[in-house]
Amino acid sequence: MTINAERFKLLNLREHRHLLDDLAKLYIQVFLEAPYFEKYEFEEVCKEFTIYSKYHTILIIYDEKVSGFIFLKSGSELNKPTEIKDALQKYINLENSVYIDEFAICNNYRGQGVGSKIMEIILEQYKSYDLFLRTNLVNNNSVLKFYKKFNFEITPITEIVETESAITQTKQMDTRVYMVKKTNN
Ligand SMILES: CC(C)(COP(=O)(O)OP(=O)(O)OC[C@H]1O[C@@H](n2cnc3c(N)ncnc32)[C@H](O)[C@@H]1OP(=O)(O)O)[C@@H](O)C(=O)NCCC(=O)NCCS
Fold it and tell me: According to the model, what pLDDT value does residue 6 have?
């Protein structure tokens, strides 16, 4: 499928809450696939996103359909253990940072430059802030490469998270790694 950039638009979930169900369905679909294979319940995801919509939750719309999302949060609101925050502080100024909490493009539009375009918009918009994110460390080379292209560096800061496997229906442990990008300003 060839992507036409003109047919894309970005909407904030806060002003478009009627799209919350579509966002939840896409979220569940993205994380059911490799390398995540995570199982989420629709009702739970909807509940979570209703709370989350107070943050900067951007819907990526293509041909009027929710086709991607990027969730941004101020680093100062990061809800993580003190040791993670202290470790991050060595790389970035959390008080002047933006956390990319979730970012995905729908499977059939990937690899065609959409994610890069969105990332360029975010980098420009938040150029005076440090940026950081957390992603899978294992079997995730293409995503790590994607962020490295935008000068995010891998830190030694990792977390083990427990998720429910969509394959075995049992609990699984995944290693997540933090990546950071200092502001140039
Ligand atoms: C990471 C992601 C948002 C990038 O969006 P995208 O529209 O595919 O990105 P682009 O087309 O601009 O760039 C593709 C680059 O990312 C890499 N990439 C990462 N995942 C990819 C995928 N599933 N399919 C195609 N390319 C992928 C490619 O290697 C490519 O590198 P290149 O520029 O050297 O060719 C998207 O692949 C995605 O949604 N992945 C699944 C969800 C996810 O893991 N999100 C990150 C969690 S923090």
Answer: 74
Six-digit token string for 117: 């375009």
Question: Is 9 near ligand 1, meaning CB less than 6 Å away?
Answer: no
Q: Is the pLDDT of residue 1 over 70?
A: no
User: According to the 3-state scheme, what is the secondary structure of the chain?
Assistant: CCCCHHHEEEEEHHHCHHHHHHHHHHHHHHHHCCCCCECCCHHHHHHHHHHHCCCEEEEEEECCEEEEEEEEEEHHHCCCCHHHHHHHHCCCCHHHEEEEEEEEECHHHCCCCHHHHHHHHHHHHCCCCEEEEEEECCCCHHHHHHHHHCCCEEEEEEEEEEEEECCCCCEEEEEEEEEEECCCC
Is residue 172 in contact with ligand 1, taking CB distance under 6 Å?
Answer: no
Predicted local distance difference test score (pLDDT) of residue 128: 97
All domains of the chain in start order, with CATH: 5-131 (3.40.630.30)
Burial track 54-90 (b if 16+ CB lie within 10 A, e otherwise): eebbbbbbbeeebbbbbbbbebeeeeeeeeeeebbee
Instruction: Kindly report the protein residue whose alpha carbon is nearest to atom 3 of ligand 1.
Output: 104
Q: Is 118 touching ligand 1 by the criterion CB < 6 Å? A: no
- Reference 99, options 81, 77, 115, 84; nearest CA is 77
